[in-house]
Amino acid sequence: KTREWQAMSRDHHLAPFSDYQQLHEKGPRIVTKADGVYLWDSEGNKILDGMAGLWCVAVGYGREELVEAASKQMRELPFYNTFFQTAHPPVLELAKAIADVAPAGMNHVFFTGSGSEGNDTMLRMVRHYWALKGKPNKKVIISRHNGYHGSTVAGASLGGMKYMHEQGDLPIPGIVHIPQPYWFGEGGDMTPEAFGVWAADQLEKKILEVGEENVAAFLAEPIQGAGGVIIPPDSYWPRIREILAKYDILFVADEVICGFGRTGEWFGSDYFGNKPDLMTIAKGLTSGYVPMGGLIVSDKVFKVINEGGDFNHGFTYSGHPVAAAVGLENLRILKDEKVIEQVKAETAPYLQKRLRELADHPLVGEVRGVGMLGAIELAKNKQTRERFPSELGVGMICRGHCFDNGLIMRAVGDTMIIAPPLVISKTEIDELVEKARKCLDLTARAVLV
Ligand code: PLP
User: Which end of the chain is more exposed for a tag (fewer CB within 10 A), N or C?
Assistant: First the structure.
């Protein structure tokens, strides 16, 4: 069947973020089933999913409770909207359950079908907020180079991926970007701490350049995920908080990756001690079993929106009952099984310790990570942080070896990324690290000649 499916792919399927000619030279790997932290492909290969799908399968694959929650809800009420003064129990219960775990003062949830839609919703809501406050010029959103905020027009504009801006004439007006706090790649001769302050100061510089009276919000992921698991130096977030306290602008955390336990806290903002006004969510909210995203809104923002009449925005699938039922059950599992506590106390420290053992590898320039997130920087020179020429495609070579050796790691340029399901065990972590070392060896053999 594999060949048949690959032919269907070639003839009919347009996969996301793909070079179609390249994809069909070999044909996609066909994933057919999953359980726990493992996937199986159509050739019967068992693969450890070091990426939890796309950073989303928090509670692991094959959770019958989620299947039950979905099928029960499908039988009772498979669909009804939340427009026109209607609602249904799962969406209300999920909104409450999210408010219960969200940072203090963040008690209101607008549901969407994805993280991208969450960021679109955010853009419209913050501009609406300022208009209601009599400051309609406050429209500009400042975000960061190499941040990822989705693939809709607003999401891709908010994101700082140059290769995305180049397609479709983006960003749309009113979105500007500042440098990312990526010390390994862009820190030059500065110490990480000095670089963290410098990178944060770029926010103030941009606010002054654009004019405080024109700035609506600053948007950032607590840790940039798709940009390469960019963990800011310790000096970064405290300095950003000082700057935000000086100016009257909103702070938005994109928690699509960091939210629901990935850092060992409920939200990445909790991990860093940040206090956002709005937070975008998706992925871990439903463990990816069904699509769902949203925007968590603080009491401060809600108060203004609440007094402002209609908020003319919404999606057919805003608060979809089946997604909401799955989300509720997923949050129940995270709480009842103390998944996040376990990550924080046991498995994340173990993963981080074991991952750092790879730093002695000749191909590895740096290993960094927080919670169930990790990055392995492949570099030509550990001391100078010199990279390999990009045309060598070292990251892609390594990703290929991983695929062939039963491990999913993602390559962002020459940065290898891991973000396994939160429920990964210590034995499975051992397997992940051992496979990663083997793949680094195979890659080194190909490039260090
Ligand atoms: N924000 C972040 C931080 C993400 O990582 C992603 C997806 O990877 C998105 C937003 C977009 O979410 P979605 O793909 O559900 O639209």
Answer: C
Give the contacts of 152 (CB within 8 A, at least 6 positions apart): 116, 117, 119, 120
Closest C-alpha to 58, from 416, 313, 408, 332: 332
CA distances from 272 to 232, 295, 374 (A): 10, 20, 17
Instruction: Judge if the upstream peptide bond of residue 171 is cis by omega within 30 degrees of 0.
Output: yes
For residue 184 the two structure tokens come to 């390994």
What is the C-alpha separation between 439 and 442, in angstroms, rounded? 5
Q: 293-298 and 106-112 as β-strands: parallel, antiparallel, unpaired?
A: antiparallel
Residue with the smallest CA separation from ligand 1 atom 7 is 150
Distance CA 429, CA 409 (A): 13
17 alpha carbon – ligand 1 mean position (Å): 13
Residue 255 CA, closest ligand 1 atom number: 3
- At residue 202, what is the residue type? Q
Helices (H) and strands (E) in the chain, counts: 18, 15
ipTM of the complex: 0.99
CA distances from 366 to 116, 138, 143, 374 (A): 31, 40, 26, 11
Instruction: Output the CA 116–ligand 1 centroid distance in Å.
Output: 6
**Atom of ligand 1 minimally distant from the CA of 115:** 12
Residue 305's φ and ψ, nearest 5 degrees, are -60, -40
User: Which residue type, as a one-letter code, is found at position 299?
Assistant: D
Please write down the HEC assignment for all residues of 94-157: HHHHHHHHCCCCEEEEEEECCHHHHHHHHHHHHHHHHHHCCCCCCCEEEEECCCCCCCCHHHHH
What is the Cα–Cα distance from 175 to 155, expressed in whole angstroms?
A: 11
**What's the CA gap between 124 and 394, in Å, rounded?**
40
Rounded distance from Cα 76 to ligand 1 centre (Å): 30
Q: What pLDDT is recorded for position 448?
A: 83
pLDDT score, position 437: 98
The mean pLDDT values, 10 residues at a time, for the chain of 449 residues are 97 96 94 98 97 98 98 98 97 98 98 98 98 98 98 98 96 98 97 98 98 98 98 98 98 98 98 98 98 98 97 98 98 98 98 98 97 97 93 96 97 98 98 98 90
Element (H, E) at 207: helix 192-210
Distance CA 70, CA 304 (A): 35
